[in-house]
Design goal:
Helix content is about 30%, strand content about 25%. It has a five-stranded mixed sheet with strand order 4-3-2-5-6, with helices on one face. A two-stranded antiparallel sheet has the order 1-7.
């Protein structure tokens, strides 16, 4: 904390590429070394400034990296739905709410509701994301790992990547 006392969160509508709610989800498979549980995280921005974030242990034991990313995407979409409603209620003009993930397989699962024998063990509550995407309320898109700021919430990073993540979420020097 001592190294960031000169940092602040900046909402700059003029320099933001969009003022839509944008979310970034990420996970670290079996990142908790004690219980071998996975860690999920998300960060949401509005006008390039952070408005919501979370990193926590997943409540279930997962069997694959695809599943851990799918669970993280579901948690992110639930938060995106709530934020979209909040922004609408506040009267802030916005278009599409996008949730970015760096997992091709998790994105594919969110859009494809066909039966897969490899995912039949995933709890029904995590398929909420499919209904939300099918309704057109939220869009899930691919983002490269190097441009995913929620990475800093789920695992240790080199200082250059950590600073880059700060820039991505609107934390700047005063």
């Amino acid at each position: 904390m001592k190294g960031i006392v000169d940092k602040c969160l900046v909402f700059d509508r003029n320099n933001a590429t969009t003022c839509d709610v944008a979310g970034f989800v990420y996970s670290d498979y079996a990142g908790d070394l004690n219980r071998r549980r996975s860690i999920s995280g998300y960060i949401f921005t509005l006008c390039a400034g952070t408005i919501s974030w979370k990193a926590s242990l997943q409540s279930i034991a997962v069997l694959s990296t695809t599943e851990v990313e799918y669970v993280a995407a579901t948690e992110g979409v639930k938060e995106a739905t709530w934020l979209r409603d909040l922004v609408t209620e506040l009267g802030v003009p916005h278009a599409t709410t996008v949730v970015f993930s760096n997992s091709h397989s998790a994105i594919h699962l969110t859009k494809n509701d066909a039966y897969h024998s490899k995912i039949n063990h995933i709890s029904v509550k995590y398929h909420y994301v499919r209904d939300t995407i099918a309704a057109g309320e939220i869009v899930v898109r691919k983002v490269h790992t190097s441009e995913n700021p929620s990475d800093m919430r789920t695992k240790p990073l080199p200082i250059t990547k950590f600073k880059h993540c700060f820039d991505l979420v609107g934390v700047h020097s005063i």
